[in-house]
Structures are given as C-alpha cells and as structure tokens.
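Quick start: what a row looks like.
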Amino acid sequence: MHEPQALPHYFSAEHEEYRASLRDFVAREITPHVHAWDEAETFPRDLYQRIARLGVLGIGYSEAYGGTPADIFFHIITSEEMARSGGGGVSASLLSHTIGLPPVANYGSEALKQRIVPAVLQGDKIAALAVTEPGGGSDVASLKTTAVRDGDHYVVNGEKVFITSGMRADYFTVAVRTDPSNKGAGGVSALLIEADTPGLSRTPLQKMGWWSSDTAHLRFDNVRVPLAHLLGVENQGFKVFMNNFNAERLGMSAQACMFAQVCLQEATDWARERHTFGQALSQRQVIRHKLVDMAMKIEAARSLVYELAWQVEHQVGDPAHLVARTCMAKILSTQAMQFCADQAVQILGGMGFMRGTRSERIYREVKVMMIGGGSEEIMKDLAARQLGI
C-alpha cells in the first residue's frame, strides 16, 4: 500500500530532507525495539540524547537556547515519523517536552529559560506537563491544586494524575490555583516545579497502552516553589495552557493519521501473504473493501490536518474557527485510527489478538489518543461554542 506522494505546497525540499533523516533514525533506533520496550515498560534514557543529536527535540525553539526555528510542518513531520514505529509509548515520553516546555520558552523569565530550555533540548533533562487532576481532566478551569504566596515562594498543595513522563521528568510545568476566590479560569497560574523539590512525590500508573511510557500520579505536599518560577502573569495562566492544547491537538491528529496508516500497511501486507481456501485474502472482495474503507478515512483526516496546519502557519481564517477545526481534526483523525486499528485486527484474525503485532498495540492505544489532550466530548462542545452553535 503506497503512501501519498509529498505535497510540495505543504512540504518543501527541506521538510522532506528532515523527514528522511528522522524516518531513518526511527527505523534503526526505535522500531526494532518497540515490542521489547513495551514489555519492559520502559526505554533507554539515552534515547533522549540520541534523538536530540539529530535535532528533533530542538525543532521550533530559538537558536539562543540550542533549538532550530521551524514552521509547523516540521512539527507535523515529527509527529508522523515518530508514530511510524507503531509504538505510542515511546513517542509520548520522548516528546513530552513538546507540551511541557513551550510555557517555559514562551512565558518564563530569561534566567529561567537559559537554565532550563537548553538542557531539555540536548536530551539531558526531561520536561513534562502536569495539568490533569483526579477530580477533573479536560476541565482545566476547575483545578484544585493551590499555590499560596509565602515570602519569595509559592507553597503548592494538591495532586496531578495521568502525567506523561511523570516518573522520569526533571521539570514539571504545573497548573495551579493562585486565587482561591476565583473558581474559574481567572485564578489559574502556571509554575515550573523541579522534580527533586522536597514534598513532591510520584507513583507509577499501570495503563491499557503506552506501556513503555512512564506515567505518574504526582502529589504536592507543601512544596515550596520560587516566585521566579512563575510562567507568565499570576492568575492569567489559563491562556498559557490553552495555547499549548491547540498545538498538542494538532500534533496528536497527525500522529493518529500515521498510526492508522501503520494499521493499514500491516493489514495489507498480511492480506497479500495470508492464503485461505487457495486464495490470498487480498483477492477477496470483502477484504479489499475493508482496506479501501481504511484508506478513505485516513485520506479524509490527513487532508484536514494538512490544510489546518497551513491555515495556522499562515494565520489564515478566523481564530475561533481554527480552534473549532482543530477540535474536528482531533476527532476525525482519532476516529480514523480507531476504525483502522479495529479493521486491521479483524483482518489479521488470530494473529491480530497476539502481542507483538503493531495493530494489536495500536488497538490498545486508540483510547488514550481519543481521550488525551481533550476528550472527544469536550472537543465537540468546544467546537460548538467556537462556531456559535
């Protein structure tokens, strides 16, 4: 099953050069090990440094901090090529800085940026985002973790859950409530909290998928955080996280399309090789129709993702409508991933039920893609509000 040709109005020669180098790295350094790392529920820490040397972790960051300025399509390529391994857990932790670090790079003090950003982009340190709480997921405005001023520090108390890279991370970008009288978005702030700060504890979580990714429950018990670690303006942190979410959702959409593509490829290869009653499965109309149905859903979702990325990059269109389209892209692409994973497992039959096939792994990881970064229900409701429905 051939993938669509590169689209020059989206991807330049420079883009494709980056894609080729990253694809080669993933094929050599990640894909052969995905199953073993999943079973071990971890992957080598030095993988961060190895992929950093390729320049992947620095994409989109200022050269002043060791990054490489890049447009949105470099981020799309990163999401796609990392997903090509068929292992969501590796990508989730290896790229957790893409949601944990932007608030620091965009809103932190110069001194903080100089100390934190280069070390993460070099793969020496790991950054993670800590927003979700036990009592609320997508509803950021309802968070209960508090930060109270005490001299030149904030004292933080509360809990965070389902935190990607939670066990390994050196730095957490944490959503806290700094104005207890404001129960909505207005009282939220963003803090950078170092993982070795006294009073911060973490517990590993067992998951349906993303086994190789370290996911944690964090507890903050009178954790003292310097005022200088405030990201942006106090009580105005909500926009810090909302801007972050839009980029995360677009990246997840691109990933989901590639995971769906991986399922289609595995199902196609199997259908050509597997013979029943004297014929290859691929010769049977019912199987060919399944494969075409998978391809159609991928094409539709990917087309929306690419067009939306172009609109965001060139700031074309009403901002509210772009947010709505981002929600739609995440829904459409993760539904395509869900459909393709289901169909691939069905086509593989008994082998699709066996651990070690890419489709089986992706089947287990569909739900985290549909829920993480904003659940399907939240996405539809947000899209409706943006469209004035």
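That is the whole record. The first strand starts at residue 127 and ends at 130. Strands lie at 127-130, 146-150, 153-164, 171-177, 188-194, 200-204, 215-226, 230-231, 275-276, 279-280.
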